[in-house]
Structure prediction request, 291 residues.
Amino acid sequence: MAKKVVFGGTNSQDLGRRIARKIKAPYSSLVVKHFPDGETNLRLPKDVKGKEVILVESMHPDPNEIMIEIIFASRTAKELGAKKVTIVAPYLAYMRQDKRFHSRECKSNTIMSALMTCGDRIMTVDPHLHRISSLSEIFDIPAKRLSANDAIAEYIKKNIKNEVIVGPDSESYQWARAIADKINVHATVLKKKRYTSRHVRIKVKSDIDFRGKNVVIVDDIISTGHTMIEPIKQIKKMGAKKIYCIGVHGLFVEGALKRLKKIGAKVITTNTIPNPASRIDLSGTIAKALK
Ligand code: R5P
Prediction:
């Protein structure tokens, strides 16, 4: 088996270091600079000849720039004799654009996956699988889907009592129901209607008894936060004790974290994307899959 080296890209240096420590491989960060005109200048930090390069790079923030980093680093590693390039993209961007919602629109998930064939295999955590059910439907290279469900269930078990789990929309059953089953508590999955990127409507049925409960809303992505804010506003009026928002991937665009905290929510995410709410470390989950 080829010797492994771990390279962390711009978005994933801390996570890359943690993974490297767990698989007992050397770690270095990619050297990325920009020319005055905005072009990317990238250098591999170490010799890669005959090695397996594990490139850890989450696709948020700056998904477009980061895709270039992944492509440049993988192709360069191959050109310089790496035996294998494994892309670890803990957060995989463009997965929500999984159909042509408007005529002539770009179906970005399949284009992103085609670009990732710069590597030999790819791993990600809880990709947004909605209209497709498996990564193999869009990737031509082996693509592994890891899950944060065990780590999130463990976190809830240790830190939250008398809880009820809520999934804010139909897709979130993959997280909400699975996590609730692991810790033996009740889960409710709500229905969401999305009008625009910043406008969703979610109706919380009035017959659900949240009185005195710690309500944990679980979703894969927290982006603008509206999918969380809508149910929180209603659940608050229904007598809940505390409301927790747990997201696998905390994108927190347009001040979402601040807005969620302002309405009293306790916000927790994994460390697939570095952010101030990240409390659940997935380096162990990823390292296990790399061994
Ligand atoms: C989409 O359905 C995802 O699972 C999330 O619910 C969504 O991306 C969250 O977006 P936002 O925080 O902008 O409402």
The mean pLDDT is 97. Residues 149-271 form a domain with the Rossmann fold fold (CATH 3.40.50.2020).
